[in-house]
Design a protein that fits this description.
This protein has 267 residues and is an alpha+beta fold. Helices cover 25% and strands 27% of the residues. It has helices spanning 23-26, 28-36, 59-68, 70-73, 112-115, 141-147, 159-163, 165-175, 187-200; strands spanning 2-4, 14-16, 43-50, 77-79, 85-87, 94-100, 127-133, 136-140, 203-205, 212-214, 217-225, 228-231, 241-247, 252-258. The strands form four sheets. Strands 1, 2, 3, 6, 11, 12, 13 and 14 form an eight-stranded antiparallel sheet that branches. Strands 4-5 form a two-stranded antiparallel sheet. It has a two-stranded antiparallel ribbon with strand order 7-8. The radius of gyration is 19 Å and the shape is globular. The two termini are 32 Å apart.
């Protein structure tokens, strides 16, 4: 879904929350993994507040207001073509947004990997002959399941499963950046996915059933200025992404950003 112009979207006011920290990006073990996966220094999370009720059916107007808000425009981080962190700083004329389903509340979602010869009971990922998908090396059964539609176990996850935010995060970490060193065991991917998911998504407990449910709306977004695609990068890649995670109760927006490339040592 795309929106152009800024019709009636000027009322929502956003404010950067630079003091908000994300423990997933403070964790030493996760930082080491991101470096190994060629994502360190190319991934970041930010938070903003907003001052009006969020209505999912008005997401396009909300996003146009977000990207053209002065506070956002001057502080929303992205990587330049030369690999330097900079801020958006341009007038956004069009946005494209996909709603990403976000309903999973348990990592048992991935238990099926153990029952179909993808991952051994010990957590070791089963190897396979090298193959390539686009420019991504596939050397184990896990990446085959994630990327190859003609793999024997692709239907282990339905199309709806694959659209889930939890699955998207897991897939992003498994694929990594340009010089990704893959893990032999699945646990580092699962632990990192869980940490990011927990940090970014908001939940509420149903007072009657005591069940946990997710209240966040997740959007994968791209933005365009007068010169074309400008965010998350001027070049599109499945591993270059920006997710906006909206908490309608706190009126907060969390942004998870990554730009595909080689690992950078500084944030």
């Amino acid at each position: 879904m795309s929106a152009e112009g800024g019709r009636g979207a000027g009322q929502v006011v956003f404010r950067a929350l630079p003091q908000k920290t994300f423990s997933c990006l403070q964790d030493r073990d996760i930082a080491d993994r991101l470096l190994k996966w060629s994502m360190q220094g190319r991934i970041t999370a930010q938070a903003f507040s907003f001052d009006q009720q969020f209505k999912p059916y008005q997401k396009d107007e909300f996003l146009m207001a977000f990207f053209n808000d002065q506070s956002v425009n001057s502080s929303l981080k992205l990587l330049s073509a030369s690999g330097q962190w900079t801020t958006l700083g341009s007038k956004v004329t069009k946005i494209e947004a996909t709603v990403v389903p976000c309903t999973q509340t348990s990592m048992s979602f991935f238990d099926r990997l153990y029952s179909e010869g993808i991952v051994r009971e010990t957590g070791t990922i089963v190897k396979c002959y090298d193959d390539y998908y686009d420019d991504i090396l596939i050397s184990d059964e896990l990446r085959k399941v994630l990327l190859l539609e003609d793999s024997d176990h692709y239907d282990l996850f339905t199309q709806l499963d694959r659209e889930e935010f939890l699955f998207c995060l897991f897939k992003h970490f498994c694929i990594g950046g340009t010089l990704c060193q893959y893990e032999d065991a699945v646990d580092p991917y699962l632990e990192t996915t869980k940490a990011f998911y927990k940090d970014l998504v908001s939940v509420q407990k149903n007072p009657e059933t005591k069940e946990i449910c997710i209240i966040s709306t997740v959007l994968r977004v791209s933005a365009y200025d007068a010169n074309g695609l400008c965010y998350p990068s001027s070049k599109s890649h499945q591993q270059t992404f920006a997710y906006l995670i909206v908490d309608p109760c706190k009126r907060h927006v969390n942004i998870l950003y990554h730009c595909f490339g080689g690992s950078l040592f500084t944030n």
